[in-house]
Amino acid sequence: MSEVLTSRDGAVLTITLNRPEVFNAFNAALHAQLAEALADAADPAVRAVVVTGAGRGFCAGQDLKEFQQMPESIQERLEQTYHPNVRAIRALEKPVLAAVNGAAAGAGLSLACACDLRIAADMATFVPGFIGIGLVPDSGGSFFIRRLLGTARAFDWMTTNKRLTAAEAHAWGLVNEVVEGANLASHVAEVAGIYA
After folding, report:
1. Annotated catalytic residue: which of 83, 116, 122, 187?
2. CA 114 to CA 112: how far, in whole Å?
């Protein structure tokens, strides 16, 4: 099974994280396939990109089962996997939309925040997650979240690890829109089509 699926609709490329049984948590294969999909997104024929998750979650961050078995240090892992993918998103010269269909936690939250726009399903939730496992926010999380929320609110949220509902995330300015879950894919496709 592919860990990342891609599909094209005209000039819109949709990248779907595809590990629904673990809420699309990152593992080595997902990182590698996401890098390939983002390289494909650089094609000039692609004029807008959508990133979403399969199943009930957007992305739960790192798969902690795999994390415990990794031989490299956390810093090496970040530099080899997370950081290149976040940089690739930011380097795309086209709009990147996160269609947050469920839980966005840890590095999954950072991935969503690296995108230009975030449109959330009404049942989506957002949680920094890092402090809960004894880490500081990585994958650009502290940079992007501070820019979106301001320093004081970002610090408070990242250190208290509060779970936000989609409505709260919208009120805070973390997401641009909240739509009914059943309408998320069609609404995001419509918005992406405007940019494309």
Report:
1. 83
2. 5
